[in-house]
Design goal:
16 helices
């Protein structure tokens, strides 16, 4: 009940706020109001699954490592590490003096507990480790040293270690909530991250406060003392918050008109960065009629890419499954996607569904998201002009994740943004296209190809970067040839932000660019 009461108090404060500039509270603390368009489903670090949940996790918890803006794995709770000659044993030395938010020290036993908890619950990031690490192979060598043994060589392992988010094992043990404290950690934070949970009204808002003794330190400039996340898809509300000066930072999923309107306000700017996030039409490769490659190619030819990426949702060109940000692994020989209705009709004629018009097809997208609605209408208009009957299916995001669990309930085409959940091309390929990843929102293509699986598995077991990159290029060519998706665009990360907010840098890992310990407030710059 403690969190619910705090959440209700927070709602009252938010409703009463009329301050110009960032809302301020006692002792000259800086409070940043941040918009998200998607609910926080969980804050349990063993269960996080999407961009808002990762946004909560990166502020509430720290991992063994983290990622910088260059995509490099850098120390966080681990100050150093070593790898055995056979590339199967990783030894981490913990950073002296790091503490949890209750002041207790971070110790090796906490890492062991957190890793074993993740493997036991087997949700969220566990898919990265479940068949790679046996619980008994995570060991505390001494109070500050952890050893993790792998079952096999797995070259991207270090890129996964930011997701080994460390939980305060003694705090959880004191809650009388079973071995893994799932009820407690569903509503409370127990991390060593820069912020602690203060209030959460599910589906509406969340508040965090700064842990002053955070081991990572704080910017020399004024740090952000409180974070107030407000969940809304209503773009009129976001513009109104900006007009009052109350908006600290918007979601990255606003419409073009909203960004343009806020950019004209004197106290606001638009943050912009190229990213590794792709915007896909995920085509269900197993469900009629998109089980036919010619139907998939027809859909690809029927999309007006320039209108989508220049007008509806500005972004960069995406030629295949991997964004060009991963330069060494990127297959630059893939042609640009082509909008050509005559070729679309020709592909329909080659399909096993030719002559069966109208060909019924379903198209899913996130409800009440203006630009996705526009793309859905464009999709419907184009395909119905060449013999399809399109069923538009706008759904809340949590419903889309439910539909993604089976072939039969996944729509024929679904609009999905996917960015790497760890800084490696492996995240793009394994999470979306490997058969082991089936049944998630990220893998709504249902590729289920032994050939693709084998290439991904081989890329994960090689430690030679050149060979690995050649395998990544082969995977891209195969997925392109089978038209696994429609590759709409690469996302240009944009957010409206108060001009006093500084420190943003894009990071090639989902939501790690919203680690607000890296930001500061200065209205003089």
């Amino acid at each position: 009940m403690r969190n619910l009461r705090k959440g209700m108090a927070f709602a009252a404060v938010l409703a009463a706020s009329t301050a110009i500039g960032t809302p301020s509270i006692a002792e000259d603390k800086v409070t940043l109001l941040v918009n998200t368009v998607q609910i926080f489903g969980t804050i349990d670090p063993a269960k996080i699954n999407d961009y808002t949940e990762y946004m909560a996790a990166v502020n509430l918890y720290d991992g063994l490592t983290t990622v910088n803006s260059a995509g490099q794995i850098v120390p966080q709770l681990a100050e150093s590490w070593s790898v055995s000659d056979d590339n199967k044993t990783y030894t981490f030395k913990l950073k002296p003096g790091a503490t949890f938010q209750d002041g207790s020290p971070v110790e090796a036993k906490d890492v062991v507990y957190s890793m074993q908890r993740l493997l036991s619950i087997n949700e969220g990031p566990a898919y990265l480790f479940e068949d790679l690490i046996a619980p008994d192979n995570v060991k505390a060598i001494d109070g500050q040293t952890v050893e993790i043994g792998l079952n096999r060589v797995y070259s991207p392992f270090l890129s996964n270690t930011p997701l080994i988010l460390v939980v305060n094992s003694d705090l959880v043990a004191g809650q009388n909530d079973g071995e893994w404290g799932e009820t407690y950690l569903a509503d409370n934070s127990a991390g060593a991250g820069p912020y602690g949970l203060e209030g959460w009204t599910r589906g509406a808002q969340m508040m965090m406060s700064r842990y002053v003794d955070y081991h990572g330190g704080w910017p020399k400039q004024k740090p952000i003392d409180e974070l107030r996340f407000v969940v809304t898809r209503d773009e009129a509300t976001i513009k109104a918050l900006a007009q009052k000066g109350e908006l600290g930072m918007s979601s990255q999923y606003q419409g073009v008109e909203t960004y343009e309107a806020i950019s004209k306000l004197p106290n606001y700017k638009i943050i912009s960065a190229d990213t590794a996030t792709g915007f896909y039409l995920k085509l269900n490769n197993q469900l009629p009629p998109t089980d036919d490659v010619h139907i998939r190619r027809a859909i690809a030819y029927a999309m007006d890419y320039e209108t989508i990426r220049d007008v509806i949702f500005p972004g960069g060109q995406l030629n295949g499954p991997l964004a060009p940000v991963f330069a060494d692994a990127y297959l630059d020989s893939l042609p640009a996607p082509e909008y050509n209705m005559e070729k679309a009709k020709a592909e329909v004629a080659k399909s096993k569904y030719a002559g069966q018009q109208p060909i019924k097809i379903s198209h899913g997208y996130v409800a009440k998201t203006a630009f996705e609605e526009e793309i859905g209408l464009l999709f419907k208009s184009a395909l119905e002009s060449i013999g399809f009957e399109v069923d538009l299916q706008p759904e809340p995001w949590n419903r889309i994740t439910e539909l993604a669990t089976t072939i039969e309930t996944s729509p024929n085409a679904t609009q999905v943004f996917y960015g790497p959940t760890y800084p490696s091309p492996d995240s793009v390929f394994y999470v979306q296209y490997h058969s082991n990843a089936k049944g998630t929102w990220a893998s709504m293509e249902w590729v289920l190809s032994d050939e693709i699986d084998a290439l991904i598995d081989e890329s994960r077991s090689t430690t030679d970067p050149a060979k690995q990159n050649e395998l990544y290029k082969a995977i891209q060519q195969k997925l392109y040839d089978m038209q696994s998706d429609v590759f709409l665009l690469t996302q240009k990360r944009r957010a409206a932000a108060n001009k006093c907010l500084h420190g943003y840098a894009w990071v090639p890992m989902q939501s790690w660019d919203t680690d607000f310990s890296r930001y500061w407030w200065n209205c003089d710059e």
